[in-house]
Amino acid sequence: MKWKNKLADQAIWSGEISNRDRKDKVAQQVSHFVKNGDVIGIGSGSTSFLALEKIAKRVAEERLEILAVPTSKEAEMNCSYYGLTTTSLLNHQPDWGFDGADEVDREGRLIKGRGGALFAEKLVMASAAKTYILVDDSKHVAKLGEKFAIPLEVDPRAVHLVETTLQKFDCDHVQMRMAKAKDGPVLTEAGNVLMDVRFAHIPDTLEKELSAIPGVIETGLFIGYSVEILTV
Length: 232
Ligand code: 5RP
Known about the structure:
By secondary structure, the protein is an alpha/beta fold. Helices cover 27% and strands 22% of the residues. The chain has helices at 20-31, 46-62, 73-81, 118-127, 159-166, 206-211, and strands at residues 39-42, 67-70, 85-86, 96-99, 103-104, 110-111, 131-135, 150-154, 171-176, 193-199, 216-219, 221-222, 227-231. The termini are far apart. 39% of the residues are buried. One of its GO terms (molecular function) is ribose-5-phosphate isomerase activity.
């Protein structure tokens, strides 16, 4: 039986969408790749939300059957709002996926995780044969780390250990991400904290080196995955 309540009867996107016109255009591009029967990884963040909106429109108009693998509860609720059937990595491997990014350099290396969904985003990206990265031109940087710190998802018990271990790295600044009201740290869906770490120089090896620190669940550095950058 379907729920008759209405509270969840709206798409979830909190706040204004910056650069909306350009995000809309790049979101439109990825909607053309959807084929009947596809299992698609659904990214998180505002650009992914706009892409989902456009994909859902095609699915409804052309009566396509697809399965969605959401990378966050936010994405899962939006899939539900748009009537898309969701599945998980336990049951399906995505044929392809799409996601946004905070920074992308000329080699296609990414910083992600402003929305804190980096762990599931990386699981889905690593599982998919290909992921389209949807970025407006404000996301392109000459030097990775130029604007954004690298988010680390960290088990709360490991905060001191991670902070101490980071002193051996060549990092400039470490900050715990705080909730807007500043009354406590931001917690991820898995109940972990986010430590934002700034580096002046980001070698390809850094993702693995940071991941090797005990207590680091995942990093927001995405290097060497099978991605295609779509941009406007
Ligand atoms: C969330 C992400 C987002 O994809 C990234 O922050 C880009 O967001 P937006 O499309 O809203 O600019 O990595 O964890």
